Every structure is written in C-alpha cells, then in structure tokens.
C-alpha cells in the first residue's frame, strides 16, 4: 500500500467513525447494511477470491448461525456472546463436511457450487420442519428497548449496531490482508490459479482448501449472529434462500473478486445505487415490484462487460493506488 | 542410487503406457529420457512425481519407496518437477510464482521471497519479477517453470521438455544453467527431451523408451549408435 492509499484509508476511517454524529437513523441503517454485506462478502472472498472455491450457498452459514444464537436468546435469554462461539463451531463443522465431501471425492468448479446450493436448500427445508426454531412461522427476538445499550444481550440503539458492524468489517479487512500476505495466501492463490502445479510444488491442496472453507464459514457465522440480533426475525424461507447467497457474492463480484477492497466497494456501490433507485421511484410515485433485482442485473451485466475484474482494480489504477 | 525404478507398469483403460520399465539415476547424475512420441516418457515422469500410482513395480527415492505418494508428498521428499505444458500461476507476479515454491522449505514469506529472488536471478528472470506471469513469452515461461521447481530445493529435478520451443542460443543458455546447478550444488537431473542437442550436451547417461519399454540404457554415444534406437527414434542417418 502506498502513501496515497494510506491517506485515503485514514480519511475513510475517520468519516465512518464520525458518521453516527451527523447521520439520521435511515442513513445509519443503510450504512449498517453496507458494512454487513461488506463483511459477509469478505468472508466469501476468502473461499472464492483467494482459494478459488465457488460457494453459492453462503446463506447456509448465515442462517445456521442466526438460528443457533437467536434460538439461545429466544428460548433461554442468552445474549449472543455464548451463541456466537456455538454458531461458529456449527458453521465450521458444516463447512468441513461440505469441504470434505467435495475435496475428498474430487468435486470441483461448477459441481462444487451445486453442492453448496444443495446443502443450503436442504437445510432451508429442514428448518421448515424444526419446532425449536418455530418452523416456517419464523422466530422473533424480543425488542425490549431501543435507547439504552445492553451489551450482554446485544440490544440497543442503531449506533451500537453500526459500530459493531464497523468493527467487524474493519477486523475482517485486517484479517484478510494478513491472510493474503501469509503462507496461506500464497498457497490459496496458487491453488486458485492452477491446482495441479500447486500440488507439484508441495502444497497439500486438500488441507489448504479445507482451511479456506473453515475460515470463510466461521466468518460468515459471525455475520449470521449479527443478522439475528439486528433484524430480530428469522424465517427459513428468507434466510436460507439462494437470493441471500447471491446478495453476499454480488458485492465482491462487482467490486473485484480476490481483492481486499473489492467486497467493501462492491457492497457500498450496490446498496447505495439500489436504495437510491428505490427512493427515486418512490418519489416519482411509481410502484414497480422487483425493480431492484432488475437493476442489480443491469449493473452486473455492465460491470462484467466493461470491468471483468471488478470496479476496484480499475479504480485503484485510476487513483494511482495500485503498486 | 538416488532414484530406482524397477519393473514399473501403467495402463490406461487397457492400453499399456509403460510396461515393466526399470532404470536408475545415480546421485549427482544427469540422465536423459528419450524416445518417440507416445513412448510413455511423460507417464513415467508422472509416476515418479506422484500424479499416478504405478499398477505394478516399485519406485524408490533415496532408498525410500515413493510409488503411490501424492505429488505434494513427493515434492516434500525432495523431487521437483516441471510440466511439459507450462502451468504458470497466471494471475500472480513472476516473483510470487517462485515464492510459492520457495515456501516449501522456508516457512516464512520474507525468507522465501529472498530465496525466490535469488533463483530468478540465476535463471535470468531477475528483472521480470514484478511482471504478471501471464505477460511472459514462452521461453520465459519455461524458465519460470524451472525456477519454481528449483525453489522447492529438490535433490532430484524432473524436467519435461523444457528446451522445446527455445532457439538454439536460448537452449545453450538453459543447458549452461543446468550444468552449473549440477556442478555447484550436486543437483541430480532427469530430463525428458526431444532436442538432441541439449540431451547430448547434458546427459551422462541416456534411457530410451519405446512403446512403454526400456529398449536401451547407457552412455550417450553408445545409445545413439544402438540399432534399435536408430530404428524407432533417431532414424538411420542420425547425426548428433
């Protein structure tokens, strides 16, 4: 990273920290959503962007983690701090099972992606029949107070959620930057670029792909726990839906797969543009259902046609940030 | 003997690619593996490198059986290899490509980076370290392939047609690099090669494969006069 990039990053950091001081609740909720998508996008990026393993079922980890931590709160009044570890453990275990099945039996590429979808789908159907989680009727976490901060139960004003998500997104960024520069990063990228050559250079590709899946699923679990305590209502039909998985991966794809800033930039661009178009249509008095999805499709098309590596690599070059 | 291949066979769907092949490579030697297309040379290499397990027979490296190990285990044991069809990590820089190999022995990135940079210099790629590997010309990609394998610090280096596509002067440079590595570091080399100019300049012994069988085995000047070798591969009027 050069000096210019460091300066810009510092300015961005200050702006983000100061945001709640001048932003209203609506703006804060948009910013929280961006950070949430940036965080989940970074988690997905570890698996696909770094190690080249395409998951189209990350909603599985979001959902399982949300239900584990949410369920403990709903049934026993436990805050997310205990549930978080349990949720991460559950997601890492599921990720390990999927990874083992795929990598042990040589399922790769599109077939691996299909396997991840299949796991997310049958988990969705399974949760519809689970009484403990409320089944298709959903689970609702009690929203007691909005103005007082209760950290033990993770209840409080929007600012608390915003700062939590900001810390998580920044932490994920630091973790990803460190991973990419470490031995793991080199091994993952080698596997992504050419698995056969990677193995010939002494890399145990099975082990390192498993590690990527497990780190990615653990990170996504954290996003899921946040989701449960922020949105307070969970429906299998929504949280495990493939559109949730796609929502997570659109950011990194638009921003730049495999880059550090891509997932963050992509999440910001998509959310801001998506919300503006909704606002604009509302102001004009046009009610068109599904317009946001059409809009996402158009943005995706345009980016893939003109910037196949995503917005970030091109932007970094333009701003003189790339080394 | 650093490598002992004895009575190794491999079939693909009933087609015998390698049949009862035996040969040895001495510590510190340079051995050429030649033969016509389809003779089973690359299959032989892939069995040594751990890509395929032989159907029968045994392969020993430094006295230890390695047949059936995974490629990464074979690499860890001390065998480096290049691919006939080069497989660069296209999205990474040239230096990063070699760092991946160097991490096999140096577990922290800074020391792997230093080692990789030294290897690049040795192969004349020092000035191109920051370029993406996809920007390299074919001769440079061949050099990168060798650099990456060397970075794993092998005791035995398997070279699969690294001279193909090089101009004669580039070929001579490459020969010089391998001679130097062999002389200075005692690196053992087993090379598959069609460029006889390079084989004759490098190899102290030659193994000839035809239809999966070893048909000749010996010093280069004896092998190139061998009747069976002339018939199946070099041609009657070979001049080397």
Number of extended strands of chain B:
10
> Given the structure, what is the number of helices of chain B?
9
Q: Tell me the β content of chain B.
A: 15-25%
Strand order of the largest sheet of chain B: 6-7-8-3-9-10
- Tell me the CATH superfamily of the largest domain in chain B: P-loop containing nucleotide triphosphate hydrolases
What is the CATH architecture assignment of chain A?
A: Orthogonal Bundle
Outline the biggest β-sheet of chain A.
2 strands, antiparallel
What would the principal axes of the Cα set say about the shape of chain B?
globular
Shape of chain A: globular
Provide the CATH architecture of the largest domain in chain B.
3-Layer(aba) Sandwich
Number of helices of chain A: 14
Indicate the mean pLDDT of chain A.
92
Low-confidence stretches of chain A: none
User: Helix-strand pattern of chain B, N to C?
Assistant: EEEHEEHEHHHEHEHEEHH
Integer tally of domains of chain B? 2
The residue fraction in helices of chain B comes out at 25-40%
Write the layout of secondary structure elements.
The complex is a heterodimer of chains A (323) and B (240).
Chain A: H1 3-22, H2 25-50, H3 59-76, H4 80-104, H5 110-128, E1 139-140, H6 158-181, H7 183-193, H8 195-200, H9 205-231, E2 233-234, H10 236-239, H11 242-255, H12 262-284, H13 291-306, H14 311-318
Antiparallel strand pairs in A: 1-2
Helix pairs in contact in A: 2-6, 2-9, 2-11, 2-12, 3-4, 3-5, 3-9, 4-9, 6-7, 7-9, 11-12, 12-13
Chain B: E1 3-12, E2 15-25, E3 30-34, H1 41-49, E4 56-61, E5 64-65, H2 71-77, E6 79-81, H3 94-102, H4 109-122, H5 138-151, E7 156-160, H6 168-185, E8 188-192, H7 196-202, E9 205-210, E10 213-218, H8 220-223, H9 227-234
Parallel strand pairs in B: 3-8, 3-9, 6-7, 7-8
Antiparallel strand pairs in B: 1-2, 1-4, 4-5, 9-10
